[in-house]
Amino acid sequence: xxxxxxxxxxxxxxxxxxxxxxxxxxxxxxxxxxxxxxxxxxxxxxxxxxxxxxxxxxxxxxxxxxxxxxx
Amino acid sequence: xxxxxxxxxxxxxxxxxxxxxxxxxxxxxxxxxxxxxxxxxxxxxxxxxxxxxxxxxxxxxxxxxxxxxxxxxxxxxxxxxxxxxxxxxxxxxxxxxxxxxxxxxxxxxxxxxxxxxxxxxxxxxxxxxxxxxxxxxxxxxxxxxxxxxxxxxxxxxxxxxxxxxxxxxxxxxxxxxxxxxxxxxxxxxxxxxxxxxxxxxxxxxxxxxxxxxxxxxxxxxxxxxxxxxxxxxxxxxxxxxxxxxxxxxxxxxxxxxxxxxxxxxxxxxxxxxxxxxxxxxxxxxxxxxxxxxxxxxxxxxxxxxxxxxxxxxxxxxxxx
Lengths: 71, 320
Description:
The complex is a heterodimer of chains A (about 70) and B (about 325).
Chain A: H1 5-13, H2 21-36, H3 40-56, H4 62-69
Chain B: E1 2-3, H1 5-13, E2 18-22, H2 24-28, E3 35-39, E4 42-45, E5 48-51, E6 56-60, E7 66-71, H3 79-82, E8 87-94, H4 98-106, E9 117-123, E10 136-138, E11 143-145, E12 149-155, E13 162-167, E14 179-180, E15 185-188, E16 190-193, E17 196-199, H5 200-206, E18 215-219, E19 222-226, E20 228-232, E21 235-242, E22 248-250, H6 257-266, E23 275-279, H7 280-285, E24 298-301, E25 304-306, E26 308-310, E27 314-319
Parallel strand pairs in B: 2-3, 8-9, 23-24
Antiparallel strand pairs in B: 1-6, 2-6, 3-10, 4-5, 4-24, 7-12, 8-12, 9-25, 10-11, 13-27, 14-16, 15-21, 16-17, 18-19, 18-22, 20-21, 23-27, 25-26
């Protein structure tokens, strides 16, 4: 359930809706950080954070992973 | 469940890990043990919404590895590093304390806040009684505090995960303009209404906004409410901070507050939450006193925590 840097860029720059509250709050925070600092290092930081969330909650992240896969 | 102080004492003396909500005096009279507590006299139990200074709402935590930590406004960011790698944490923040304000404004920036499952509430008082103080209690030491947050960190077995959910009867009203704020604050004078600088209090008055309706922030598909406390001259005071960069709209009106809440709760009757609590504004505006609900019992609170501080929301945690 690995999400690529390119997919994360789309998540952070496109309006998207997820099912998990924690992911929604995290993405909202990271979207704000990336808007302020759209650098490669910030994108990597966001990619790592979102992948850590998916790794920890893998069992309940199927629907949101599919949403990202279709973006 | 709601119980007498004698029943609560027995559970404490049996060494159970407990979350206890109730009157400040009752909490003070409990023996030391593995519990945390916070003040409120409002509850939602099987029998319905209840106001009581004589009973305690006790939630037994069905896990055996846990610890209790106390935080002030300086070390509250440590909550996430203190939490178990796999588990959840229940926080109680005394209303209007510095730690309440610092948590409300900064929790989203705490390291790993969304990886650790932090749920909880803001303690309060009986709105009809004088002389009460919102408190949080560390049951292991008996320390009762009006300015420190108390947290129970609970570890889960490796094959289990915690998940936090909310019940929010409000959604953004598409007819409301987008309202944005230029700073993070509990107290607002100016805002941007569809990009135009406006005195927020004037906007509310001119548009005859029902202040029982919260602002709903758009968090990537989840609506997060900020409730209006008071419109005072040119200042609007809020029960939670608004944040720069979040797009808010006022909520859609709800025709029948209690029915809509009950409808959403009825959809969740199959879940078995380990912990839940609901907002005093839902209790009051929904007229829940004496009205039974089927599930999601717990204390009625003065702010709810689902990772961050939220308002006018029921929060719950399940273990899967």
